Amino acid sequence: MGKTADLTTVQKMTIDTLKKEGKTQKVIAKEVGCSQSSVSKHINREAKGRKRCGRKECTSKRDKRALERIVKQNRFKNVGEIHKEWTVAGVSASRSTTHRRMQDMGFSCRIPRVKPLLNKRQRQKCLAWAQDKKDWTAAEWSKVMFSDESKFCISFGNQGPRVWRKTGEAQNPRCLKSSVKFPQSVMVWGAMSSAAVGPLCFLRSRVNAAVYQEVLEHFMLPATDQLYGGDDFIFQHDLAPAHSAKSTSTWFKDHGIPLLDWPANSPDLNPIENLWGIVKRKMRDARPNNAEELKATIKATWALITPEECNRLVDSMPRRIAAAIQAKGAATKY
């Protein structure tokens, strides 16, 4: 005959069913194959709403509040540092207990998202831009060709320090780390529409206005024929120095290509940023040994992007605009 703690899930369910049928504890014990005391303890526990036995928690509500304050003061501390500070505050608990209490509060250890931090003026401009575009439909956004550069590294293991955050706090300013624009690495230029992706261009040197205009001439113009044929479109790029140079603006005017105005430091509004993320996730298991193998892997992965993925990302633009307005021009969840 098993003890209460030894009852299986099936035995507990059987006891509950037979109890509802009006069977006595003696009959239930015989049918289930356990002691009558085990049946009695299980029934009494369910009646009192007790889920389990065991010693009481060694930490109080006050201790938990102190722990949450410590975590929120610096979310980039590891469990050992947080445990030490909690112990100094007068709480007697083990390191594993500290970790469990943090998990009970909803904190998970995650790789922080990278977001360029916006100053007040930039947030105001982003908000004004979003309000100006809030009535654009998905059909109007489908006429936009989105473009961007992205960095790809041979090593995928160095993700940097992790951050403690709860569900829904990914874009909390205290959970973000600042990014460095265009770090030295293998840089790729790409473009997309709601229908498909355009050709990739691997950038061999620092991107100045002259280099960027060569990219436009040899990669962007062929992409327009591929993605739009002879239909009208609007080209999007950010405010990088090479993009906003006077000679680049003249190049677009000479070619009769309209530009979409774009707020500074707002990659979260650009769906191609999500596309780069999709490509990098698909490459997660790849381990290229050199730059040429890395380029080949990027090309092969880029070619696997489907029209459905592109359409889904561009269709999200109205939601991105709404999120930017709700956040008053700050970081959005995209």
From TrEMBL:
UniProt-listed GO biological process terms: DNA integration; DNA transposition
GO molecular function, one term: DNA binding
Residue ranges of every copy of the Tc1-like transposase DDE domain listed in the record: 144-295
Organism superkingdom: Eukaryota
Domain spans labelled Transposase Tc1-like: 64-132
A Pfam entry, by short name: DDE_3
SUPFAM superfamilies: Homeodomain-like
Protein name (Swiss-Prot/TrEMBL): Transposase
